[in-house]
Design brief:
The chain contains 11 helices and 9 strands. The chain is α/β, with parallel strands linked by helices. The strands form 2 sheets. It has a 7-stranded parallel β-sheet, sandwiched between helices. Strand 6, helix 5 and strand 7 form a beta-alpha-beta unit. Helix 8 crosses helix 9. The chain binds NADP nicotinamide-adenine-dinucleotide phosphate. The site of NADP nicotinamide-adenine-dinucleotide phosphate has 30 residues, from helix 1 and helix 6.
């Protein structure tokens, strides 16, 4: 059933740039009352002002999803200002490109804290109010990396697989409750994501394949709010890549090997190891 956005209270975490920012603008344009959250207060304030100057309603609440109590404070500010929350979009995320052998515990934990624990805590906060209302829609922005894992993406792909599992499990728990859960899986999108990501390799990966415009993902999120679906894949070849990864692993492995060659060149940590196949070959 198609819903309407006008008058709905829409929380967007990760709204200071990229997909979240564009999504917040589109919901505001459709008459949603938008609460924008992320860490950078200046970015949030200018987005809030842009929405208000265009005749919309908006509230900016600086929020770090990894800081204790800040997601609860975001919920409190939303209820104080708008009295309810109808659509809650979890879009905060950071990326990382590194060999598993180069990934420290602290780096792995950081990716998990933002991408998974942030989403988990935000789902709990949204549900606290949505259960009182008996209605609501949680939209978690995951990634194609939530369905298959390319090399050098272990931390990011693992966190997004976990976001997919959380979304699926929660959606099934909530059947019959009036509350929906959706997961959005974009492919490569043209945002600041690659500038913000932790990269332990030369370059940042923008040139591997061309990126989609951010509006395409924001539009898919709006469409999902209007006609809720459990899962939405937003990428030109996304479905085919998933089929390839799941049904034809040898072909997908060849694609992954090509990706690795482009991203990492000829270097391989196991070639540099002092013991093991490389060292044995030399003796
Ligand atoms: N770009 C892509 O190719 C791509 C592809 C698939 C999926 N995605 C996913 O799409 C989502 C949005 O990414 P994007 O591409 O729009 O990148 P982006 O422009 O870098 O946006 C990331 C957002 O997350 C926020 N954020 C990061 N850490 C946070 C924290 N600790 N607490 C609160 N907010 C935090 C950032 O704001 P502050 O820095 O102000 O906190 C920013 O608003 C992410 O979940 C990402 O994994 C992106």
């Amino acid at each position: 059933m198609r819903r309407s956005i006008a008058g709905k209270v829409v929380v967007v975490i990760g709204a200071s740039s990229g997909i979240g920012r564009e999504t917040a603008l589109r919901f505001a344009h459709l008459g949603g009352h938008v609460v924008v959250a992320a860490r950078r207060p200046d970015r949030l304030a200018s987005l809030r002002d842009e929405i208000i100057h265009a005749g919309g309603k908006a509230l900016a609440v600086p929020t770090d999803v990894t800081a204790p109590g800040q997601i609860e404070r975001l919920l409190g500010a939303t209820l104080e200002h708008f009295g309810r929350t109808d659509i809650w979009i979890n879009c905060a995320g950071i990326g990382m490109v590194a060999w598993v052998t180069d990934t420290t515990d602290a780096e792995m934990r950081r990716i998990w804290e933002v991408n998974f624990m942030g989403t988990f805590h935000a789902c709990q906060a949204a549900l606290e109010q949505m259960m009182r209302q008996g209605s609501g829609h949680i939209i978690n922005v995951s990634s194609l990396a939530g369905r298959f894992a390319l090399p050098l993406n272990s931390a990011y792909a693992a966190s997004k697989h976990a976001v997919n599992a959380l979304s699926q499990s929660l959606g099934r728990e909530l059947q019959g409750s009036g509350i929906r859960v959706s997961v959005i899986m974009p492919g490569l999108t043209d945002t600041e994501f690659f500038d913000a990501m932790v990269s332990k390799l030369p370059g940042r990966g923008r040139s591997v394949v061309s990126a989609m415009p951010v509006g395409r993902v924001a539009e898919a999120i709006v469409r999902c709010a209007l006609r809720p679906r459990d899962q939405v894949i937003v990428a030109p070849l996304g479905r085919w890549l998933i089929v390839l990864a799941e049904a034809f692993p040898p072909i997908f492995n060849a694609v992954a090997r090509r990706y690795l060659d482009v991203r990492a060149g000829a270097g391989r940590p196991w070639l540099d190891a002092e013991v093991g196949p490389a060292a044995e070959r030399e003796t």
